[in-house]
Amino acid sequence: MTYQIIEEDGFKYIEAGKGETLVLLHGLMGELSNWELVIEQFKDRYHIVVPILPIYELPILTLGVKALSRYVHRFLKYKGLNNVVLIGNSLGGHVGLVFTVAHQEFVKALVLTGSSGLYENAFGGSFPRRESYDYVKEKVAFTFYDPAVATKELVDDVFKTVNDRSRVIRILTMAKSAIRHNMAKELSKITIPVSLIWGKNDKVTPPEVAEEFHELLPNSELNWVDKCGHVPMMEHPEIFNAYLEKFLDRILLK
């Protein structure tokens, strides 16, 4: 990415643009670059902030979705931000949900894409063959409808991460925390507008997950992206951005 990572007071993030604030939350194996085309599309009209979630920095005994939610709370207070639109992919969506239940006064609206929080079919709970590049490549490709989106650069990054023993232990800890923390009984508390933008061919959080979110979130809309897997903003950025723009226009410009 061409954006400089800002490091201050224990926080790492990127920031661009001015206007209403969009806070983008990445997934468990996600990178800031996952949001690059969203940032490019909206930075001329919105203030965009992308915190790096401290999955590899928090004490492992406290690591979980609630700990990441508390981190987001500290970060928003540090930046003096409220009335934000939270946009989360995968684990980032789950963190956004936990945060919104606890601090709905900070959030004007929520966008979820491939969010965990109800059910997810991730790497299977372990990396039994993490030393095998072909195995990791296959698992990364599983994330997308079109395997070609799993570029060598992306596979290389994941391969390096899952072969770092300290990091893989944290990834598994975080994944287990997400699976245990089912939010079905809490979603009715979220009354702000929610846009679900979902890959029709998502194998990690399948379409029925999106339908259940839509049913349980009282003020939600459901938008499908055809021929698309778990990361719509990477696989079909034009369609994702069009849905997002329409939602933002409706809730922020009315």
From TrEMBL:
Membrane-spanning segments: none
Residue span, AB hydrolase-1 domain: 21-237
Record's keyword annotation contains Hydrolase: yes
UniProt-listed Pfam families: Abhydrolase_1
Organism superkingdom: Bacteria
Gene Ontology molecular functions: hydrolase activity
UniProt KW Nucleotide-binding keyword: no
Keywords: Hydrolase
Record-given protein name: Alpha/beta hydrolase
Species this protein is from: Pedobacter chinensis
